[in-house]
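Input chain follows. Return structure tokens only.
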Amino acid sequence: MADPGLHRDKRQRAVTGIQMDESMLKKCDAALKTVTRRQSAVAFSEPVNWRALNLPDYPKIVKQPMDLGTVQDNLTNHRYAFLEEFANDIRLVWKNAMLFNAPDSAYFKNAKQLCEVAEKKMGELEQEGIGTLPPLDPPVRCELVLSEIMRHPMCEWFIQPVDVEGLGLTDYRSVVDRSMDLTTVQRQLKADRYTTVESFAADVKLTFDNCIKYNGANSMFGVVAALVSQAFERKCTTYISLGAQHPPRTGQPVPDREGWPSFSQKKKFYDACTKLSLVDLNHIVKLVHKSCSGALQHNGDKEVELDVDNLDMETFKKVFNYAKQQIQKLEPAS
């Protein structure tokens, strides 16, 4: 029997993601230009002219050509209904480059670097758009994250179980302790077999970790797995952990109160939390539980939501300082 912590409300409908309204479209346009203005992006600005470049194998390997110029044209002509559609076309550009070119080539390295730049912008756009989603219970938020990750172009190799026999991977089971794939995760999620968000996230991460472990971090598959895994971690933080506490943009923010965190302070705390891992966010919940438990809302036995508006100043300073300390650990030393 599933734990109530991840038990779904049958009345809730699955949502399709952050919509591409006019405001979001302008932000996407600015984000895309941040990428295309880089010198290394020139090679990805137009369709690959494989005939002129004498690359006869290109159409055999790359089945869905994409380039940044086409993405810009699609965006300008309102062809994207959702943020994730825009993001996935950009990701397709990098996937194609890494699929066709060797990991030690300039094209592969530039694609990886540009992908990291683009994903940072996508994270910012997701933070902007998360408040437009309706309130959702934890399983639906998990389903949204999983469905978006499964549509990620680089997830092609992680949807189904690894065909060990068909691919002749005789040593796979001696290297990988427990196999996992996203279809299996999806099936278990729909069957309410995950009792916590953490157990769901762990199985998704296992899918990518297995790939890196077997193929090596510097292989094409290893690089791709790491990039998708990072995108998943970010979505977990934004859609699940923060989405649970982020109110829809329908009302006014709580007015500033003397002796309580201001709106500006709470906004900085929220921005800091988007950079934290699930482990760090869970530690913040534990800190709040010790000194300001009234700011926690319990949904079942496991799921807990943090109401930042009800944090007293002492507790707020404590958790905000913790968040900043964890972020500093992640920043490279200068």
